[in-house]
Write a structure and sequence with these properties.
The protein is mostly helical and 446 residues long. It contains 19 helices and two strands. The radius of gyration is 23 Å and the shape is globular. The N and C termini lie far apart (48 Å).
């Protein structure tokens, strides 16, 4: 009787902790790792000329280097759900942080493009986990009625990382070599991994005690069945016309904006508008501000209208207009430039509506699988755009090199940026082919 009472008391105490601060601490750690991941995504944009000089490469080869982040990031999205289900958020997030740290060390020590590419590949593999991992923690520990709110927090944290990876990083890079910065990033990743391992638990204690251990490492038949079920689900998702249309729409919108933010915007502003590195990075941050403001507003409008297509069409049309202005206008007044960049961020933020439309066109039991395919296609897009834009920049370059760094003109960048409105035009055409869901679940589990 005494043992039963003590066990009951322990469970009561554990349940109380679940309702307190612990779930938010775990969620906060996972979310902050996503901030770190987005920081890593945009960091090469600020140090682009240093990378060209130290590795002796032109825009095309640097675009290939930066794309390795997206290759591993995209490749991880489909199997990530299985990894989280099998090993839990604690293990997977900890390993992800360590991969980011290892990749940062490899990148910092690299003397050749091949070694640097391995570093970016490792960083991308780790960075591909936190967004989904944070949502897994939220789903297990936080009230379901707050799920939309916490999803917004995760997306906002990504924009915070993108902001920190622009002007603040530019200011730091004026005094610290980029290799030292990546050493610091590696140390930070190890600290994150330690905190995640110590703090994160996969499920509330009452849930864990009520269910048998779901780990399947010692149950090969169940592992095999799960794998077969995964491939069966993938076939169903891949057979859906709307899954591909929504994913291609996302790729045509995400590819240009992520390519611009991750590698080319700072160099373009420094050359075209004679800005310092820190000023160019701060100006780039305007895109993130527009994105952060626009994301919740576009989602609220889509819910209020009970329509998904209008925000997506408006976003694509605005993106097309802004890309055309950037690509066709040699220089413009700074207030006009700031407006264009802000609207570009607001337009890109409508991509969030795609998740709702994808969910409503997908059977609930296949939601994670469809999201994995969607994320994979969206992240492959900037991986392809990085070298494409680099090749286009090199195509019009006159070959001038100053102190080991290729000197590109603003016209070189603008010629390359003409690829962006072509893609957003395709996105507009795709949006008209989509079936409106009217905020209803169109596909059941059967």
């Amino acid at each position: 009787m005494t043992d039963m009472r003590s066990r009951s008391a322990r469970e009561t105490s554990e349940v109380a902790s679940v309702a307190g601060y612990l779930p938010w601490v775990m969620f906060g750690l996972a979310t902050s790792l996503y901030t770190y991941a987005f920081f890593q995504r945009v960091a090469p944009n600020v140090i682009v000329d240093n990378l060209m000089r130290d590795f002796g490469v032109t825009a095309l080869l640097l675009g290939n280097l930066s794309a390795f982040y997206f290759y591993s990031y995209a490749g991880l999205q489909i199997p990530l759900g299985i990894l989280l289900d099998r090993y839990g958020a604690r293990v997977v997030l900890t390993v992800a942080a360590l991969l980011c740290g290892l990749g940062s060390i490899v990148f910092a020590f690299s003397e050749s493009l091949g070694t640097a590419s391995i570093g970016q590949l490792l960083i991308g593999a780790g960075a591909g986990v936190p967004f989904v991992g944070a949502l897994v923690i939220a789903r297990a520990w936080l009230p379901p009625e707050r799920f939309a709110f916490v999803t917004g927090l995760v997306m906002f944290s990504g924009m915070a990382g993108a902001f920190l990876g622009q002007a603040p990083l530019a200011a730091i890079s004026e005094t610290l070599d980029w290799r030292v910065i990546y050493y610091v990033l590696a140390a930070a990743a190890v600290i994150w991994a330690s905190m995640l391992w110590i703090t994160v638990r996969d499920r509330p204690p009452q849930t864990a005690s009520a269910q048998p251990n779901s780990r399947m490492a010692d149950k090969p038949d169940q592992v095999k069945a799960q794998g077969a079920s995964f491939w069966a689900d993938m076939c169903v998702v891949a057979a859906s016309r709307h899954t591909w249309l929504i994913s291609l729409y996302g790729a045509m919108v995400a590819g240009p904006i992520l390519s611009f933010l991750s590698l080319w915007s700072v160099a373009y502003l420094m050359q075209g508008y004679d800005m310092s590195r820190s000023s160019a990075a701060a100006t780039t941050s305007i895109v993130m501000i527009g994105w952060a403001i626009g994301a919740p507003i576009s989602g609220w409008v889509a819910d209020k209208m009970r329509r998904r297509k209008p925000p997506m069409v408006v976003g694509a049309v605005l993106s097309l207009a802004m890309w055309l202005i950037l690509a066709l206008t040699p220089t413009m007044p700074l207030w006009t430039l700031y407006t264009v960049l802000f609207v570009l961020g607001v337009a890109a933020s409508t991509m969030g509506v795609m998740f709702a439309l994808l969910r409503e066109h997908t059977a609930p039991r296949l939601g994670s699988t469809a999201t994995g395919l969607f994320n994979t296609i969206c992240m492959i897009s900037p991986a392809l755009f990085q070298p494409l834009v680099g090749w286009l920049i090199d195509l019009s370059w006159d070959g001038v090199i100053v102190r080991g760094v290729p000197l590109y003109s603003s016209l070189d960048f603008q010629n390359a940026f003409l690829a962006y409105p072509i893609c957003t035009s395709i996105a507009i055409l795709i949006s008209f082919c989509l079936r409106e869901s009217h905020a209803r679940q169109l596909v059941g589990n059967s």
